[in-house]
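Weekly structure sync, notes
Attendees: PL (lead), two postdocs, one rotation student
Agenda item 3: pending single-chain targets
PL asked that the sequence for the first pending target be pasted directly into the notes so everyone works from the same version. It is reproduced below exactly as submitted, 353 residues in total.
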Amino acid sequence: MWSSRMALRRLQRITPLALTSNMQREMSTLSRVYITRQIPPEGLKILRESGQVQFQLWDSDDLPVPRQEMLEKVKGVDALLCVLTEKIDAELLDAAGPNLKVLSTMSVGFDHLSLEELKKRGIRVGYTPDVLTDSVAELTVALLLTTSRRLIEATHEAKTGGWGTWRTLWLCGHELANSTVGILGLGRIGVAIAERLAPFKVKKFIYTDVVPRPELASMINAEYVSFDELAKQSDFLAVCCALTPETKEICNKNLFSKMKNTSIFINTSRGGVVNQDDLYEALSTGQIAGAGLDVTVPEPLPITHPLFTLKNCVILPHVASASFTTRNAMSALAANNLLLGLRGEPMIKELKL
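Predicted structure, written out during the meeting:
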């Protein structure tokens, strides 16, 4: 597996298509690219220095490009570089027109893409897995510890005068030593999470997936179990599966009702895999002990949402991949995928439609 630092160094060394001055003069036009967000500098540097494309971008990191603006800007482009906040559907592909041959998304998830429409139109799709494995795994562990050891509550008490005399059971949480950690959806990130948790003296790792993953499971000595057994046995349950029609709201009252009342639920995958009403009920009634979420539906989650009223729910603003190294590696990979796709060459990471 690539670490994000290794990946960034490799991606920086990829040599773009060498264009001689004669070749440049012979090219009537450079390929037109639209970029839907201000992406980290490594990706933009690769595109600028390629001599292969001209691009426009929505130069903001704070707000997504307005839909109508994007529908106008994509007209006639040869390639599109997007992030997960942009819905790439039939309407947008119609607006782009027949020149669009390559889509590169700076994300590992692709639930924002209408894959059938892209396949129907013969548009190649690049994405950015692997390079964010380390940062997502690190954040998942941080969120798990923050939730299980009630660190947000403790910080609040220290700041607001709740810190009085030492008490025997005040702010007690749940520790990893001798615990069972369950993983829903065992892939690169699930393995990386388990590797980081193992030194905490976890007793057992278990997982479930659409099929057993013996090669990955052997790396962390994890046991394949049914979905129900995952719920029943897990002291800590980390959700690492992709959002698909099959996994939409798979974490619902059926799952929570089978979990221990001491269990901690962690989701750093996609918000759509959780039924948030059912999660609220499970947390507010003590069916489970706590939850840590880096992803929600919608994003951002309205500050009036009931989950924000719960002390045993820690919510982060989708920052699992938010390290400088990882985000630059993602943008570099997205840029290289786009350039290779335009040249008709194999992408570094391409979705097989």
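Discussion points:
- DSSP finds 14 helices and 13 strands in the chain.
- The first helix runs from residue 4 to 13.
Action: rotation student to compare against the earlier draft before next sync.
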